[in-house]
Amino acid sequence: MADPKGFLNHGREVAETRPVGERVQDWNEVYVPGSLLPIISKQASRCMDCGIPFCHNGCPLGNLIPEWNDYAYREDWSAASERLHATNNFPEFTGRLCPAPCEAACVLGINQPAVTIKNVEVSIIDKAWETGDVAPQAPERLSGKTVAVIGSGPAGLAAAQQLTRAGHTVAVYERADRIGGLLRYGIPEFKMEKRHINRRIEQMRAEGTKFRTGVEIGRDIDAAKLRKRYDAVVVAAGATTARDLPVPGRELKGVYQAMEYLPLANKVQEGDYVTTPVSAEGKHVVVIGGGDTGADCVGTAHRQGAASVTQLEIMPRPGEDRAPGQPWPTFPMLYKVTSAHEEGGERVYSVSTTHFEGDEDGNVQFLHLVEVAFVDGKLTPKPGTERRIPAQLVTLAMGFTGTDRDNGLVDQFGLDLDERGNVARDGEFQTNVPGVFVAGDAGRGQSLIVWAIAEGRSAARGVDRFLTGASDLPSPIRPTDRSLTV
């Protein structure tokens, strides 16, 4: 145990953010560099090393949280890094991007603010990179088996790294021009600088993983032919079919899916553009969708110099404390103020878009909405609440409905889908096609980064067993496992 009285002696302190006026002028991460290390030992000491650590239940990776909290408290960074990597391939990703269901399940959180698990995690991994504790782990011998991984998001990268370390020859196919999937082009730079992805890719290259960018399976290479070239295939293509908003005026110029808008801003940071082809500069921006992707659009619009930013959510505003029907240790629906929301803009709840209004040139100018309320369990418009708001750039951030069907990958493989439109798989993460496995959002549906990594690790075990008859690789979850919610 770290400090038996740590949770009594110290309150919760989180990473310090840079002033709003400073950070909206650049695209660097919002946190003050180096602000965590002076406080992180005390924060790690608040971990109680519970008899039953429910943080393990909250985390699908099964992270050994009390153990690396203890090492962080003692400032034994090498041991902390070893424990961290024992269950998580990419803690620098989860430590920055995961909404931390582990903290929602923290036993201390029953009657106090939870342990800052995410902050401890990111402190450990950043220190590990600084001290050289993160090194390539090349396999001692090769199996002679080959694996193709389709998609380079967190699920695909986790599966590829696990299988490479098991001795298989792995090639990762990515349809974009750079590796990383939505980590690369869906997550803004101010939430995670892409140097964190780049150095993991270099580690994986040193271990033996091969990467093929700008290759879309289904269009550039026939999926059935790919299956013949490899001993096994892992489909980790994500759930990239965005939910649309079929209302009058949707066709107007200036209405975009979030994943049409955000990648262009990231490409500016990569040096592909001097200025983004779709900019919020000087415009009244409306973001439809109240989740994390919507918040990413809000923060991006602020940095592009939007005249105003309004975020719309059809559901009621969540409370700031756990509702009676969302007891500990479930992951509660709470009102969150992200760094993007701290930077300005308006958030409007319980409203639904009825239509868009444009000018004579076909550019969107206004968004018409109506307030809604639950009536007999259904969201119903409230008469007399219709109004319009300025909208010269609209982003749709309403989630995703399944994996891409248009590129032919699903049909060329002959994959079965489940009732939700995801690729069906068995208990080993194998599809109906022998030797073809699925991991991440393509099989689970839209989910969190921590679940994607857990899926990649678990699918890797299934592939390893398929190729060799047995496997020592860990499998933290089953395909049917779900978040601890009510």
Task: Jot down its keywords.
16 strands, Fumarate Reductase Iron-sulfur Protein, Chain B, domain 2, FAD/NAD(P)-binding domain, single chain, 486 residues, alpha/beta, iron, iron-sulfur, 5-stranded parallel sheet, globular, 3 domains
Q: Helix fraction?
A: 25-40%
The first-to-last residue Cα distance is 31 Å
Main pleated sheet: 5 strands, parallel
Low-confidence stretches: none
The CATH homologous superfamily of the largest domain corresponds to FAD/NAD(P)-binding domain
Tell me the fraction of residues in β-strands, as a range: 15-25%
**DSSP strand count:** 16
Describe it for me?
With 486 residues, this protein is α/β, with parallel strands linked by helices. The strands form four sheets. It has a five-stranded parallel sheet, with helices on both faces. A five-stranded parallel sheet has the order 6-14-7-8-9. Strands 10, 11, 12 and 13 form a four-stranded antiparallel sheet that branches. The chain folds into three domains: 5-131, Orthogonal Bundle (Fumarate Reductase Iron-sulfur Protein, Chain B, domain 2), CATH 1.10.1060.10; 146-240 and 401-468, FAD/NAD(P)-binding domain (3-Layer(bba) Sandwich); 244-398, FAD/NAD(P)-binding domain (3-Layer(bba) Sandwich). The relative contact order is 0.13. Helix content is 33%, strand content 16%.
